[in-house]
Each structure stands twice: as C-alpha cells, then as structure tokens.
C-alpha cells in the first residue's frame, strides 16, 4: 500500500525539500555554489541529517557514484515527463537546477526560446538556426486566437504578434522590453522583432526606412567589448506608429546614456565605436586624401584613440562592407553625399585630435606640440590652429569681473582634449538621431496607437565598475521593479478570473535598493543626490564623495564597503547580486561639463555641421543649467517608466550561454547568474509565492484517478468530485491548493509528489502488463516460428531448384557473352595494332623523305662546291697562261687530239709533224667531216666562227705548249688569227710527198678523228652546262623555301609539317639532248606561257607548248599531293592521332585554305594564258606547214644542176649547207636573245702558208 492511504499518517508536503519522498525519487545534489548533478535518492530523509544519493554518470556507459550529503543540499527534481517543457512555470519544482536543466535540454535541441510565465527567455545560439524563415513567420501570422498561439512553440514572433494583435483588439499601445547582459543577443532580437512587425504591417515603404536605422545606429552606438563583439553602448526606445488600417506610418527613436568615454578610452582587447574602423577601411583613395586617412592597414593604426586597446579588427567582420551599408542607410534616412562628407570630416577631425600631443613646460604648464596632428585636426575642424592650441593648453577663468588665462597641467590638458572629442562625438550622435526621427516622422501625428521596443543594456558587473555601470544597474533596478509590478498585476487578474483568494500571496519588492540610489532630501539621501551635492563644491574630490557616502548610507543594509581595501570603493546589494563601484572620476563624469572656450572654438569653425552641433550644445547647456548627468538620467528613466506604465508590457530576457561566444557550449554558472540578473528567478519566486501549477478539472481527474483505490473517473460533471476525493485521499492541506472555476491551483512541489506517486503506480502497472503481453506474444511466436520453419524449408528447396536452372541458363549466356567479348577485344586489339603500324609507317616514311631530301641537298651542295672549285682552277689557268676561254679550249683540244693520235695510230710526234708537213705541201687530200655544235655557250665559244662569237684578241699558242711541241720532231703548224683557229690539212702535191707512202694516207683519218673528238667534247660540255642550270634552279628553290621559313618565324606562326615537307620536295632538273635552249624557261615556266618565245619555227613552238602543258600538269599533280598531305596531317593532329608541339590545327587549316585559294586563282590565270598561247602556236604551225609546202614544191620544180651548183658554191665559201634552229635563252642580264646554231655538214681547210713556230 502506498503511503498516504486511508488510515496512514500521510506525507508531509513541503516545498523544494526531499521530505516525504521515497527511495528512487529523482533529486538534484549540490556539488558547488553553482553546480548541481542529477541523481536518485537511496534513503528516505524524513528525519535523517544525511542522505545517500546515487549520482547519474557524467558520460553515458559509465557507472554512477554514491555520495553522502546533507539533506539541505538536495532539492527534488521534476519527473521525466516535464523534461524540456517549453513553459518553466509548468514545472512541478521551481528551483534553480530544475530551471537550468530544462533550458539546457532545449538549448541542446536548438530550441532557444522558452517561456517563464509571461516572459520569453531567448538563449543566444551563436550560430544560425532555422527559426526565422518566411514559412515560420507565416505560421505565427495565421495564429488567429489564443488557443492556436498557445499550441505554437515559444518564439519572438509570438511575442511581437501578441503585442500587435492586442494593440488593435484593446486599442491600447504596447511595449516590448528586451533586456539582457552584453552579448546575450538583445540587438539581434530587436532587429528580428522589427522585421516581423514590418512583415505584419508593412506596405507603405516606411518599414524599410525603420529597418535601415539599425546599421546606422549600430555603427555609431555599438562597439566591441570583452563580452560582446557588437555591444550596444546606449539604450534606445523605438516607437513604431500605426494608422487605423494597421499599417506602419512612422517611428521615433529615443536614446539613453551614450557611453562617450569609449571614444577616448577602451580596455585592452576592446574597440571604440564601429564607425571609426569602418571609415578607415571603407573610404576611397580620394576621400582618404581629403580627410587625411592613411592608406591600407595603416589607416586605423595611425590614430592613438584607436590603438590604445591593441585591437583594431574583429575576426569575421568586414568593416569595408559594413561601411557601404552605413552609407546606404544614411541615404535612406535622407542624408545626402554632401552631408555624409561633413560627417566623415568631423570623425576624421576627432581621430586627429587624439594624436595631438603636449610638451611640458618649466612650471608644470604645457603647450601643444605644433606638428602634423594639430594642423590636420584644425584643418578638418576648419578652425584656426593657434586658437585650437590655445584652448587645449589654457583655461579662461572669470573671477570678480576679471578674465584670467590659466595654463593647464598635463592631466588637465589631456582631459580638455578628450572632453572636446567626446563632446563633438556625442553631439554628432544626437544629430544623427534627430535626422532619423525627422525622416521617420511622416504620419505619426495622425496615429494614436504605437508599439514600442525598448533595447536597453542589461545588468553589468565588471572587475572595475564606474559611474556608467552605476547608471546602467540603476536603470535595471527600476525596470525590474516595473517587471515585478507587472507580473503581480497579471497574477492578480488570473486569480480574480478564477475566483481565488489572492490576498494571501505576498511579493517581495526591490524598492529599498531603488531608494538607496535615487532618494533625495528631505525624505532621505541617495547615491545620486550625494553625488550632485559633491559636484557643487569646488574643492570636492572623488575621495570626499566616497567618504560622504560611507558616512550617510552606512545604516542601509544594502550599502557596504570593504574595510580591508584602501581604495575609494563602495558596494550595493542589487537584486541580481552585489556590485563594487570605484569612485574614480565619478565627479567629472557626473558634471560632464565642457569649457566655454571649447564651445567658442566650435562656434568659430567654418564647418557648417560643427557650427550646428556647437549651437545645439550651447542651447542645451543654457537650458539645463547645472543639471548633472545623474539627474538627467534619473529624469529620463522616470519618463520612460511613465511611458511603459501607459502601455501593456511584453518582456524578453536574453541569455548568453558562454563567455567565449561559441556555439554548443553551456556554462551553467554563467547562465544561472544571468537568470538571477534578468529576473527569471523573480518570476519563479512570484510563482512560488502563489500557485504556479495549474490543471483543468477534467485533466487532473483523468490523469490521477487511477491512484484511488476504488473510484474511477466518471462523467464530466463528476470531475470536480474526483479531484476533491484525490486531494482528501492524499491529505493535501487547504493552504497547498485552491480550486477555481475551471482549474485547480497548486503550490510549488505538490503536483511533483503526486506525479512521483503516479509514476510508481504507472511503472508497476506497466510491468504487469508487459509480462502478460510477453506471455501471449511468446506463445504466438512459438507457433508462428514452427509454421515459418516448415514454409521456409519448402520455399528454400523450390528456390534452390530455380536458382540451379537459372545458373545453367546464365552459364550458357555467359559463354556466349565471353565469346563475343573475346572476339570484340581481339578485333579492337588488331585495329589498334594496325593503326599503330600505320602511324609508325607514316612517321618512318616522313623520316626517309626528310633524309633523302637532306642527302640531295648535301650532294647538290658538294656539286656546287666542286663546280665553284673548278671555276676557280679555270680562272687560275686563264690568269697563268694569259688566255681567254676560247684560247684555253683550243689548246686543250689540240693537246688531247695529239695524245689521241699517238694512242690510236701509234705515231709519235715526229710522224705527226711529217704528216702535217705533207698536208701543208698538198700531198694529203682534203677531208671534210660534218661538225655538230650545240647552243652558244661560254665554254664552247672557241669553236664558233667570228660572226658567231665575240671578238677575241689575236693570240698565239701558249708558250709552254709551243715549247713542248718544239722539243719533239717537227709537227704540223697551228696558227691563231682574229680569235679563230683552223687546222689546215694541206693535200700534198705530187712534188712534195714524203718517202713514206703509208704516212701520206693518214692525214684524212687524223682530221676526221680530231673533228669527232671535238664534237664529243662539245656534247659533254653541253650536258655539264645543263646540270649546272639544274643546280642553279635547285638553289633558287631552296632559297625560296628558306625565305618562307624566315617569314613564318617573323610572323610568329609556326609552319605546318606538311608545308615543310612540300618545300623539301625539289623537282628534278630537266636534262637531255635537245633541251639546251629550255633551261631558263624551265626555271620560270610557272609564270610563262608557251608563246613567250620569240622567233623560231612553228615546230619548235608546238614542241615547247606541249612540253609546257606537260609541266603544268606535273605541277598541278604535285601541288594537289602537297595540299592533300597537309590537310591529312592537320586532320590527324586535330583527332589526336599525331603529335605536333606548338601547332594550332585550326590556325594551320585556315592558312592552308588561304594558300589553296591563292594557288587556285594563280593557276586559273595561267591556264587562261596557256590556252590563248596554244591557239597562237596552232596558227603558227599552220603557217609553217604552208611555208614548208611551198618550199617543197619550189625544190621539186628546181633543176638538179641548180641545186648542185648552189651546194658547190656553199662549199667554196667554207661552210656547209645546214638547217638552223632558233632557241630562246636568257643571258646573265635577264634579256632575251636569239642564238642560231648551225650544224656543219663538212669542214674545208683553205690553202695557207703556215709557219711552224718553235
């Protein structure tokens, strides 16, 4: 039987204690000041001082440990049913570890929003979470009633949507108070709420301007601190106005307590306001030169105000990009480019003002160092450098109607410089807020409803806390008081609606701490009133102020100081904890006065914006008089609270999970401290003071009726009776619950013990049910397993047979596939081998062609060298013997002929002389032998007649040759006359014959042999000349190919291998008998036509025409082969079958196309010219045939005697009758000349009187 049954004493119900809990109950065990661990109670602690607790393992899989602790270190834990619940007030036990554990579970699941009654708790995830998409926003927009809203998970959208709908339903303005520690995400939460409201009530364009104020205010009002990279250093209240149709029609921004000291001083690792660093990174080169900002990384590092803390950049932040967003935001709120330039100028002046330095004088006075910093600051502020230096180093005092100029000491001069910088920046910040309000003021006058968003600094407690932290914590005390008051009113409304007596609910207030700070005489004195009092005394210091505080407030239990520390410090016990404040510079910061001299310098500036700011500053000082910063802030805070009291409040508390600003890291001590500071503990305290746990009658009866021994839940009308019986059965005291009209309200902890009892009964029932279900399932499982085994055996046999048949089919199919695959692979290998062989053959043939061309070039070069050497030797012979070419030829022929005669006839030199003498005397008969001559050539001019060759000077035989002849017996006489030589064969007269009869018959034979040898020499010389012409032609072709390569290299385009091979293929030179007159025409046949020859008969023209046509065909075939080879090679390179380093196939193909087009155009022109020339030759052939026909007919008609007489007449002249051919030849000068070559049919020697010279 469970404890609490009838007849038993029943449990003792206590809040947040383990009394009344049994063994196995979940509890929290305190391990340190802010450290708790979950465990299970091992021993009941009704009266025992010590308890045994089994702690849960730190890591899964590890065993737990048992610890012994005092009962005061244990608090009950909520049942697992409530783990991760979205509303903390629904927890059975509202203690610190329970709240902390619930937030941790939700944070681990990226559920960063939770509820604590009417308060939304937002934990900063330090990463992007998928909670702000358009689909999520639409989901919260369409939640029409409260039931649908309660079904949605907690979200800032839900709070903003409730405020917006309540504004129109109740026709009352709403306010959202967003607070939290620095780095908790207040600024981001504010921006998210504003974007959601813009999506709810947008459409007028005003929402875009409101959203654009965020980057502008963040740049000028946010800075990097040790706890947050984007910390708001001011408080702001954004009032968004709505028209009657629910659209945004205007807005107004009010700021509180800007931290001006951050402009001139930051802690190590912090930064000044973002705008300074953004400006140094984002200005253009021209703007940098205009405002005196150095280029690059030296921009921010060049100013003392930005480098004191040693931090000028934030990882992951692009200051240049943010600067462009600030400029766009300025343009959106109506600040044009000119106004922006004036703002950058003032900010640059503030930075250069921080670089102004002072030099100490002999009497501790200082003077401003006249360097670049002073000049740049004066130029940017557009004031006189001398005036600026004067107000920074001296002070004007008006005493007794006299004006006294007093030199400042170093500390006072530095404070004056910093005061000027802070005053300019604060005035500029106020001016920007005014510009924003002016741009957003449209339509707000016609609006009666507004929704305000308060983004204000959270509670702060640092190692060194000054006047700013006192004001911030004072504001948080007042807001916490407002928060408690609001929660108390909500609780009152709920209890009144349910008909519950709420007068027994007591709430603790923090009015005592508020009075300690803001109390004023005559009722009492507070910290701020004493501070104002000390500011009035001229000789008051921070130490006198601290002493006055200790004297006046020592009896207040929330005020204290550490007597062991000699510093001027005092401590205040705030609702969030104790904070120690250092009194250093409290008086100066509270006065916040600026010298009239500095205001005068600002008013005397030529900068319009600085004059405007100075005028506004002067008016503010005149209007407020001697009002201090503390008193002004107290008045602003009073107005703010009054404004909040007029609206319906909605609270958002932001939590920072760790100091490192890293995702997925949870610092339980830090979170617990923030829960205390932001008032979540106050929410739970108020809830604990009242009745936090609430259940509907039907839900309570349905859930816990199983705990009754004999009664079950009946119809709906009997739910209240079941609830009363349950309370009586478990003997819950009347002071532990209240029954309302629809709900039952429990004190904290009551429902937890009921839930624990219900959980034990539930576990027992579930155990019995599980065993019974297991028994039935086990029996069914055994039956099913037996049947399944039989079915499986049959099925496996069938499947095996089918698998075997399928395997055989697959085997045969595999054989077919393998056969086809092997054949395919063999064919592919064969084709690959054939392709490789073709590539190798092509490469080898190309190499052979290149080798043959190289060999041909080498042989031709050797032949040309030999020919050049032969010409050199020939010239040496001519120079040695003093003969020309004809004379040397005559001498050589004579000497060769004599040698041949000696070898052929066996006649020695005396015999030859005898023969010649016989010829000269006329004893030998004259013998005529026809001599054939080739075309006129320099090598053969010695055999020409004087009319056929150039005139040669008279010369005799060489002396050496004549000496060689004289050394032997006498020989026939040789004479040279007019450049011609004639061997006179004199037929011996009857009276002059030698005694030798045999030698008298030899002259005729010797003459015929000599003439035959001369003819053979001339033929050999003609062949040599033709080969020389061929070599000259090859040389010209090689020179042309070389020039093409040089042109290709000069143009930067590599020539294709195909074109190189085409250039290497030099055509063979034509040679052979009968082509002596076609050498130069062959060189130039590609640019000539068959009709270009002048003179000659028709047969020669026809032959040359046919020959030219054959050559044109050969040239066409050769060009065709070259173009085809080039195209094939380029195609191989494009397809990757050949490699050509540095070759562009597409470029080479275009070049080949241009070459082919040029060849085709030129060849067509030559074909046309050839066609017309061939027609002309055909006409000449016809004329030649007619002329020959006429000559034939005339010869036939001529008598035989006339022909014989004409022949004899020709013989008497010394020349035979012979046909002649006219050939066209080009001499060295390039002129055309006609050479008639006459073939001699016989040779006659005239009788002369020779002289044999010795």
TrEMBL record:
Ranges annotated as biased composition (Low complexity): 1091-1104
Residue numbers binding ATP:
180-187
- Tell me the GO molecular function terms: actin filament binding; ATP binding; microfilament motor activity
Positions of the UniProt region annotated as Actin-binding? 637-659
Polar residues composition-biased segments:
930-948, 990-1001, 1048-1059
Residue spans of biased composition, Basic and acidic residues class:
1177-1189
Choose one Gene Ontology CC annotation of this protein and give it: myosin complex
The UniProt keywords, alphabetically, are: Actin-binding, ATP-binding, Motor protein, Myosin, Nucleotide-binding
User: Looking at the record, which segments are called Disordered?
Assistant: 924-977, 985-1004, 1048-1104, 1177-1254
> Where would I find the Myosin motor domain in this sequence?
83-759
**Single GO biological process annotation from the record:** actin filament organization
Q: Which InterPro entries match?
A: IQ_motif_EF-hand-BS, Kinesin_motor_dom_sf, Myosin_head_motor_dom-like, P-loop_NTPase
**PROSITE patterns xref list:** IQ, MYOSIN_MOTOR
Q: Sorted alphabetically, which Gene3D superfamilies does this protein's record hold?
A: 1.10.10.820, 1.20.5.190, 1.20.58.530, 6.20.240.20, Kinesin motor domain (3.40.850.10), Myosin VI head, motor domain, U50 subdomain (1.20.120.720)
Q: Which family does it belong to?
A: Belongs to the TRAFAC class myosin-kinesin ATPase superfamily. Myosin family.
What PANTHER family would the database entry show?
Answer: DILUTE CLASS UNCONVENTIONAL MYOSIN, ISOFORM C (PTHR13140:SF706), MYOSIN (PTHR13140)
Q: What is this protein called?
A: Myosin motor domain-containing protein
Can you name the source organism? Apatococcus lobatus
Lineage, highest ranks first: Eukaryota, Viridiplantae, Chlorophyta, core chlorophytes, Trebouxiophyceae
């Amino acid at each position: 039987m469970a404890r609490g049954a009838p007849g038993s004493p029943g449990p003792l119900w206590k809040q947040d204690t383990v009394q009344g809990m049994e063994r196995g109950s979940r509890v929290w065990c305190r391990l340190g000041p802010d450290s708790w661990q979950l465990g299970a109670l091992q021993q009941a602690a009704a009266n025992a001082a010590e308890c045994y607790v089994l702690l849960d393992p730190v890591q899964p899989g590890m065993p737990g440990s048992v610890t012994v602790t005092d009962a005061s270190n244990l608090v009950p834990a909520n049942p697992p049913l409530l783990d991760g619940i979205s509303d903390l007030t629904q927890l059975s036990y509202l203690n610190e570890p329970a709240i902390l554990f619930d937030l941790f579970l939700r944070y681990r699941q990226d559920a960063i929003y939770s509820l604590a009654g009417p308060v939304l708790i937002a934990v900063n995830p330090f990463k992007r979470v998928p909670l702000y998409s358009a689909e999520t926003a639409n989901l919260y927009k369409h939640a029409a009633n409260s039931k649908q809203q309660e079904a949605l998970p907690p979200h800032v959208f839900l709070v903003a949507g409730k405020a917006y709908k309540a504004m129109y339903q109740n026709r009352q303005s709403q306010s959202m108070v967003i607070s939290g520690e620095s780095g908790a995400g207040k600024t981001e939460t504010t921006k998210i709420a504003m974007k959601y409201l813009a999506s709810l009530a947008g459409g007028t364009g005003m929402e875009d301007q409101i959203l654009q104020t965020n980057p502008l205010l963040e740049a000028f009002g946010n800075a990097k601190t040790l706890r947050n990279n984007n910390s708001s250093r001011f408080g702001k209240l954004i009032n968004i106005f709505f028209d009657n149709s629910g659209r945004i029609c205007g807005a107004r921004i009010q700021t509180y307590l800007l931290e001006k000291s951050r402009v001139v001083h930051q802690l190590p690792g912090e930064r000044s306001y973002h705008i300074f660093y953004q400006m140094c990174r984002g200005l253009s080169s021209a703007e940098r030169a205009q405002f005196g900002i150095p280029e690059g990384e030296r921009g921010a590092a060049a100013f003392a105000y930005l480098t004191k803390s040693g931090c000028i950049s934030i990882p992951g932040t692009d200051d240049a990009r943010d600067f462009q967003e600030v400029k766009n935001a300025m343009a959106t709120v109506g600040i044009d480019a000119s106004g922006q330039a004036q703002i950058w100028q003032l900010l640059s002046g503030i930075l250069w003002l921080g670089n102004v330095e002072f030099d100490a004088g002999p009497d501790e006075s200082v003077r401003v160092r006249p360097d670049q910093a002073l000049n740049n600051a004066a130029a940017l502020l557009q004031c006189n450098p001398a005036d600026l230096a004067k107000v920074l180093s001296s002070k004007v005092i008006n005493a007794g109607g006299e004006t006294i100029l007093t030199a400042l000491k170093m500390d006072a001069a530095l404070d004056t410089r910093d005061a000027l910088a802070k005053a300019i920046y604060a005035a500029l910040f106020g001016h920007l807020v005014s510009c924003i309000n002016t741009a957003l003021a449209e339509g707000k006058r016609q609006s009666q409803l507004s929704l305000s968003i308060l983004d204000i600094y959270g509670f702060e407690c640092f190692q060194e806390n000054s006047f700013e932290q006192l004001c911030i914590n004072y504001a948080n005390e007042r807001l916490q008081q407002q928060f408690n008051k609001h929660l108390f009113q909500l609780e009152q409304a709920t209890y009144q609606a349910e008909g519950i007596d709420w007068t027994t609910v007591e709430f603790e207030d923090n009015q005592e701490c508020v009075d300690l700070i803001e109390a004023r005489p005559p009722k009492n004195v507070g910290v701020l009133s004493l501070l104002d009092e000390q500011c009035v005394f001229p000789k008051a210091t921070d130490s006198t102020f601290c002493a006055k505080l200790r004297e006046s407030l020592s009896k207040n239990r929330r005020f204290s100081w550490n007597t062991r520390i000699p510093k001027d410090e005092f401590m205040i016990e705030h609702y969030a904890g104790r904070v120690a404040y250092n009194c250093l510079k409290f008086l100066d910061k509270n006065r916040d006065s600026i010298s009239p001299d500095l205001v005068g310098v600002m008013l005397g500036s030529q900068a319009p914006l600085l004059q405007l700011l100075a005028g506004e500053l002067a008016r503010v000082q005149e209007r407020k008089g001697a009002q201090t910063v503390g008193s002004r802030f107290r008045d602003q805070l009073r107005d703010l609270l009054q404004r909040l009291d007029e609206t319906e409040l909605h609270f958002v508390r932001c939590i920072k999970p760790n100091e490192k600003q890293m995702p997925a890291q949870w610092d339980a001590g830090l979170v617990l401290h923030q829960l205390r500071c932001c008032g979540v503990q106050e929410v739970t305290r108020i809830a604990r003071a009242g009745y936090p746990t609430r259940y509907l009658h039907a839900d309570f009866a349905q859930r816990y009726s199983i705990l009754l021994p004999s009664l079950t839940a009946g119809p709906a009308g009997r739910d209240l009776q079941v609830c009363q019986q349950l309370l009586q059965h478990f003997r819950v005291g009347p002071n532990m619950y209240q029954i309302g009209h629809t709900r039952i309200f429990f004190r904290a902890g009551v429902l937890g013990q009921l839930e624990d009892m219900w959980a034990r009964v539930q576990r027992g029932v579930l155990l019995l049910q599980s065993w019974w279900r297991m028994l039935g399932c086990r029996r069914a499982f055994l039956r099913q397993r037996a049947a399944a085994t039989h079915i499986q055996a049959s099925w496996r046999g069938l499947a095996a047979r089918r698998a075997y048949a399928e395997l055989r089919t697959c085997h045969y199919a595999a054989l077919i596939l393998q056969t086809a695959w092997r054949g395919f692979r063999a064919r592919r290998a064969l084709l690959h081998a054939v392709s490789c062989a073709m590539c190798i053959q092509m490469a080898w043939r190309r190499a052979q062609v290149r080798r043959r061309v190289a060999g041909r070039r080498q042989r031709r070069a050797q032949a040309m060298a030999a020919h050049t050497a032969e010409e050199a030797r020939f010239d040496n012979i001519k120079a040695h013997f003093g003969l020309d070419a004809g004379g040397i030829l005559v001498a050589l022929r004579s000497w060769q002929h004599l040698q041949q005669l000696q070898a052929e006839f066996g006649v020695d030199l005396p015999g030859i002389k005898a023969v010649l003498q016989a010829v000269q005397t006329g004893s030998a008969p004259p013998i005529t032998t026809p001599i054939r001559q080739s075309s006129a050539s320099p090598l053969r001019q010695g055999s020409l007649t004087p009319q056929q060759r150039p005139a040669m000077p008279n010369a005799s035989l060489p002396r050496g040759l004549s000496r060689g002849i004289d050394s032997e017996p006498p020989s026939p006489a040789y004479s040279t006359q007019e450049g011609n030589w004639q061997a006179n064969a004199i037929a011996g007269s009857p009276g002059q014959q030698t005694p030798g009869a045999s030698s008298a018959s030899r002259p005729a034979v010797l003459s015929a042999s000599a003439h035959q040898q001369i003819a053979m020499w001339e033929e050999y010389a003609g062949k040599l000349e033709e080969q020389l012409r061929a070599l000259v032609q090859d040389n010209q072709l090689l020179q042309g190919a070389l020039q093409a390569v040089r042109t290709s290299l000069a143009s930067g385009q590599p020539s294709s291998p195909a074109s190189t091979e085409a250039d290497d293929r030099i055509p063979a030179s034509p040679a052979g008998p009968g082509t002596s007159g076609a050498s130069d025409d062959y060189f130039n046949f590609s640019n000539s036509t068959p009709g270009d020859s002048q003179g000659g008969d028709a047969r020669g023209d026809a032959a040359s025409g046919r020959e030219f046509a054959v050559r044109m065909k050969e040239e066409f075939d050769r060009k065709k082969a070259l173009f085809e080879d080039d195209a094939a090679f380029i195609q191989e390179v494009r397809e990757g079958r050949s490699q050509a380093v540095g070759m562009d196939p597409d470029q080479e193909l275009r070049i080949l196309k241009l070459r082919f087009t040029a060849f085709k155009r030129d060849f067509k022109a030559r074909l046309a010219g050839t066609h017309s020339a061939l027609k002309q030759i055909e006409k000449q052939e016809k004329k030649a045939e007619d002329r020959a026909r006429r000559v034939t007919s005339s010869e036939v008609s001529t008598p035989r005697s006339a022909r014989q007489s004409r022949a004899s007449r020709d013989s008497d002249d010394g020349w035979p009758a012979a046909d002649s051919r006219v050939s066209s030849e080009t001499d060295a000068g390039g002129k055309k000349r006609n050479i008639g070559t006459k073939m001699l049919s016989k040779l006659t020697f005239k009788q002369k009187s020779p002289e044999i010279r010795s």
